[in-house]
Hints:
This protein is of the alpha+beta class. It has helices at 25-32, 42-48, 64-73, and strands at residues 7-13, 17-22, 57-63, 80-81, 86-88.
Amino acid sequence: xxxxxTTCQAVxxxxxxxxxxxxxxxxxxxxxxxxxxxxxxxxxxxxxxxxNNYGDMIIITIxxxxxxxxxxxxxxxxxxxxxxxxxxxxxxxxxxx
Length: 97
């Protein structure tokens, strides 16, 4: 049985798109490097994105539903940050475990 409360990490350009997904930060970064314009500078861009402004590259925790939708439709999907810090789809139940 699939655990619907599973989360993973994602490289997210704030307000724009998810570029990489993985079980760990390193996996998400490796996945994102194939999609970003400047893969050699991705890790330094992530360090600069601490301010969480529009366009910043950051690492976020996402729900399984976000992962599935990004896999199906690509990274340009609407997501919202829950009170627990996990990014979910709009209307997705915020389950704290």
